[in-house]
Design goal:
With about 200 residues, the protein is an all-alpha fold. The chain is globular, with a radius of gyration of 17 Å.
Length: about 200
Amino acid sequence: MGIHPLVIFFASIFTSNMIFSNFLGMCSYIAVSKEVETATGLGIAVTFVLTITTILNYFVYQYLLIPFGLEYLRFIVFILVIAAFVQLLEMVLEKYFESLYYALGIFLPLITVNCAILGVSLFMVIRNYNFIQSAFFGLGSGLGWALAIISMAGIRSRINEDALPKGLGGSAITLIITGIMAMAFMGFSGIVSIS
């Protein structure tokens, strides 16, 4: 069986966080982490997409690509699965959650190219996770990404950018804070590792 799924779940939130450990998904993380409400909405959307697409990609890989010897197509196929699912999610949000749809704006379609989502599917394959491990890994990675962006949004909402030295506003201060947060999360690294 290998690593217990709960270990993978907690490790993907803390010790192997997609933002703080692998720096995947930084584009939308930096751009949408200005307001807690929007960051929370995107964090929930990314968690949902990560969980479902990891499960879908597991089945596609195990029952379509491997049996037909098409493992080399995993990048393209994983991206297609992610894109199709995000398109479906976008249509549902526009129909039933219009305010969230407009709050996320351009960043909702960008979930498709969020490298954290593709990265989780690729890590799942590289690490030879079974179905349960893959599902817990997808959920934990999504929650870890959401934790990172919501925490950053909370911090950025308290920063008075006018008081910062010239050149340290916006993305610069976000990257500095991200580095400090990554060092804080490194404190968990001795506890559990799934690499």
